[in-house]
Amino acid sequence: MLQMNNSILTTSDVRNTLESKLSRYFGVTPQEADKNQIYKAAVLTVKDILTSKRSKYKEKIKKQRAKTVYYLCMEFLVGRSLKNNLHNLGIVSEYEKVLNEMGFDLNELYELEPDPGLGNGGLGRLASCFMDSLSSLDYPAKGFSICYEYGLFKQKIIDGNQVEFPDDWMNDGDGWLVPRTDKTFSVKFDGHVSEKWENGKCTVIHEEYSEVQAVPYDMMISGSDSEAVNSLRLWRAKEISNFNMNLFSQGQYVRAIQENSNAEIISKVLYPSDDHTEGKLLRLSQQYFLVSASLQNIISDHLASYGTLYNFSDKVAIHINDTHPALCIPELMRILMDIYSYSWENAWDVVTKVVSYTNHTVLPEALECWNVDLFRLKLPRIYNIVSEINRRLCEDLWTMYPGDWDRISRMAIIGYSQVKMANLSIAASHTVNGVSKLHSDILKKTVFRDYYKAMPYKFTNVTNGIAHRRWLSWSNPKLSKLLDECIGEEYKKKPETLTEFNKFRDDTSVLERLQEIKTENKLALSKFIFNKTGIIADVNSIFDVQVKRMHEYKRQLLNALKIISMYIELKENPNAHIHPCTFIFGGKAAPGYYKAKEIIKLIWSLGSEIERDPKIRDIIRVIYLEDYNVSTAEILMPASEISEQISLAGKEASGTGCMKFMINGALTLGTLDGANVEMKEAVNDDSIYIFGHTAEEVDELWKKGYEAIRYYQASDKLRKTVDRLHRGFNGTSFSNLVSYLISGYGVSDPYMCLADFDSYIHTFNELTSVYQNKELWAKKSLRNIAQAGYFAADRSIGEYAADIWHINHVK
Ligand code: GPW
Predict the structure, then answer these.
(1) How many domains does the structure of the chain reveal?
(2) Which entry of 68, 323, 361, 656 is annotated as an active-site residue?
(3) Of 588, 546, 585, 552, nearest to 273 (Cα)?
(4) Which of 769, 739, 557 is nearest to 646 (CA)?
(5) Whole-number Å distance between alpha carbons of 256 and 97
(6) Residue 202: which pLDDT band, with cuts at 50, 70 and 90?
(7) Best exposed site among 213, 264, 567, 675 by fewest CB in 10 Å?
(8) Is residue 642 part of a domain?
(9) pLDDT, tens digit (0-9, with 9 covering 90-100), for 28-57
(10) Is 746 among the domain residues?
(11) Which residues line ligand 1 (CB under 6 A)?
(12) Residue 658 sits in a domain of what CATH number?
């Protein structure tokens, strides 16, 4: 129940506000209203509650002159909001009751909300989980991103091929956005820059630029059982109405108008590649658009509160989520020097005190580099500043490492016609962190080794975490209820207290309840799958799930090989001892990522062939779930039993899906990669199933030379599997994938699927054999749930707040 204006929100308040919204916006009574109108009215009323709560919270921040963190990220994968907001505000039962009286089912209303896809995957979802925790822990925070008109594409699988469709989520999904047309900023691109000296003072002149207006749309993020409502500000590009009068006067009316509408393309669409950079001009424009608008906003808010910039670094922390917003470094320099007349040294001092940076990958294809010519042309002033940062950096490095050109060129920000964004980010940030222990260690040892040697004090680790309320309490109400009964509700605010659940490891009635809950959740998922695919997934089979972006390093192909080998075994011996399994896959491939699309085709074809064989499909089934997104994940996680986290060790920075599975009681089958390593430490060896080469062994294998063919020759099972892959499934041959896996001359599969195949199969068999013993399985599942508290975003945010941002709770 929510305390509003010192009074309690009652059901009659809810009824009155709903009625008044229905009448005002749709001219209907509750009796006349349809589901859609009721849904929209509910959103409007919740938005009002958030607004009033937010203004009170803002007052408090102001009064306490509290430091705020600004979290910049090109992606926020927010998921649906109605359910989350009602839960976080503690007003579900009031709404449920009133809506029931009006003849509506709240759960059905939730389903009407489109799932805004303003992110690709892990990176964007992490940002959203972090916003949830920031608010729930009463930290003052503001997220900044782009209001993409088209979010991540919708995926359809047609004959096994991924086909992309536009996601115009704004059509119905903009209900949570509050446009703030009073708070716009202008962002300048292109043109020429020159310096003008007058009376010993230098002014920078930027001419013939093009200008875009950034219009903010705010989404309010309520905390759970907290006072805070923070906001996520999404910028939309709008043409500026002062047209290029030169063009008009030259009679070029159409071109003048056309040039303007080009501006709006900046916030048109989210780039659909994950862990990969394309180096496109439009993407660079998007990045600068985000940081320039956000920084102007941060500075103008600061001036409005304090009237001066002298205390800027005491009151402001700016966090860049990977390097995508790294242009905020030169942009802050530009604003301080060109507008507020700071000296270089003073501006640099401010920048290096406020900016911190999280790295999310070691994959070389994801480390952002921009072509110097493109960069200079689009952002001439910013290029000047980056060059000067680079010049001074190299000068310092020269004193540190005289004559060591190799090292200095590796550490330089500009070199070989490229601007290296990671080097810029490390050079200017006070703190740099990786997202799991293993990943942070790898950063220090490999990609950022030189920087770690030169500036060891900057480097730290903050292991990722998830919004455990969304992913456990609100998505899995049955398990949540069991936990409430066993250990009380404290874990909702203090996830580390989930360990109390360990006390019930020998309580047979609790273990039975766990099994029942899993079965009920599997039934719900099974219905969902049936509605989407017409396939009935048997709830008595093991639900083995791999859902994540399609990527070679995540090795969905290895999982497919495992299933193929089981298929062969069953064909040879229909009575083979295999516990029935339903293999569920889901995930999108970047539209231009051919190999990933081929793997989708393989999984789909394998599934289709099996589906036509009644004997086999009763034992193993393969389902490819289309258009995997946050809402689908909320149904999948509670119903999963095996969580496949099988990336090649050393490649997955952290992974966060793994944590959602764990907290819902799935057992992990995984490599020692990313956060799996810490999950193993948390549950002990008998409740997690680890296989394959370690990161160190992978390195050694590389150095020695990875010869896939050797594994093929050494294992009968593997050889049969790969040969079968060559023959293909459902009429499609996959010989390309075979050459990819074992081509003899060093160009084969860099993610070493074959090297881990045998140990994967072995560990999978070991894991599934436990399933015979339902109680033992439930015990292991309980252990996972009880030890998952560490992987809550509340813990991660607590660490960022204390060790990196130095911000305090505002209550
Ligand atoms: F390349 N991640 C992602 F590092 O989802 F920027 N998209 C991305 O573009 C990048 C990373 C980037 C993921 C990591 O792959 C995953 O391991 C990690 O758990 C997640 O970011 C959140 O830290």
Answers:
(1) 1
(2) 656
(3) 588
(4) 557
(5) 56
(6) confident
(7) 264
(8) yes
(9) 999 999 999 999 999 999 999 999 999 999
(10) no
(11) 120-123, 126, 274-275, 322, 360-361, 366, 435, 464, 652-656, 674
(12) 3.40.50.2000
